Amino acid sequence: MKYLEVMATKITPTPGTKVLVRFGGRLTPAVLIENRGVFHGVNIVRVRLGDGSDPDALDFELPLDELEPAPLAAA
Amino acid sequence: MPSHALAVWRGESAEKLDELIAAHTLVGGTKPGRRYATDQLNASLVLQIAAHFQLFCRDLHTEATNALAFAAPERYRQVLRIALTSRRQLDRGNARQETIHEGFGRFDLDIWERSVAFSRRVPLQRDRLGQLNTWRNPIAHQDFTFSGEQRRLLAGTSPTLRHVKSWRSACDGLAGTFDRVLTAHLQSLMGTAPW
Fold first, then answer.
1. Is A72 helix (H, G, I), strand (E, B) or coil?
2. Domain ranges in chain B?
3. pLDDT for B162-171, tens place per residue?
């Protein structure tokens, strides 16, 4: 993979970042709400499904490297 | 081998709590205003101990989830992660008896029952954790209205350094016990040491 491609897919674990996560059999919009830190070499983050406007939407933890960047228009 | 969560509780978290206790010692003397300063430090210690213990519980839960997920076939790791961490009460409220039970119950573990079997000090430590959390919310919201049940739990206690130290000690004991109990439980599930 070329340097620019790596940079294009890397997600910074900053709360508020819009991402895509695999949920319900497809890529679903979500918002990174917390960087939980590194556990045994894996950076774990907490995400909430949706655009961040619903505080009761489902939230859960995933490794940072399993998130996909949101399309620019949604970010 | 202890969990990373226990290492953080006994390392970074302990250092931060020690700094506050050291500040308490520095606010010495008999001048007017000392009492106000120590009251504020005690209140801060109550909030900080509760916060760091909640962090310990969340970290231990996340670490256990991570261990189980990596022991599972890759195709359903994410299913496991979502089932184990979604809407976890420990993320939204204090580390109370009920939220701790709800979180670790997801691993098919009654953490309180196992902890009581592991150490006879746990019932007293559990009561002290209840006292800490019952003082924590009024301090955070500056509303010291207690229910009858809360008054019974808090009888004979106050947010003074002596009690603050006993609450911290109780959390420390529970942290060590939870770590041992969960490690053994995961080992029985996975057939290998989780960390």
1. coil
2. 4-190
3. 999 999 999 9
Q: Looking at this predicted complex, what is its ipTM?
A: 0.87
Cα gap B24→B19, rounded to integer Å: 9
Give the number of beta-carbon pairs within 8 Å between A and B: 39
Is the residue at A40 inside a domain? yes
Domain enclosing residue A60, as ranges: 3-69
The number of beta carbons lying within 10 Å of the beta carbon of residue A6 is 9
Alpha helices in B9-85 (DSSP H): 14-26, 34-71, 77-85
Which residue from B minimizes the CA distance to A42? B66
**CA atoms lying within 13 Å on the CB side of residue A21:** 25
Contact yes or no for A22 and B78 at CB 8 A:
yes
CB-nearest to A40 from B87, B91, B195 is B195
CB neighbour burial string for B159-173, b if at least 16 within 10 angstroms, e if fewer: beeebbebbbebbbb
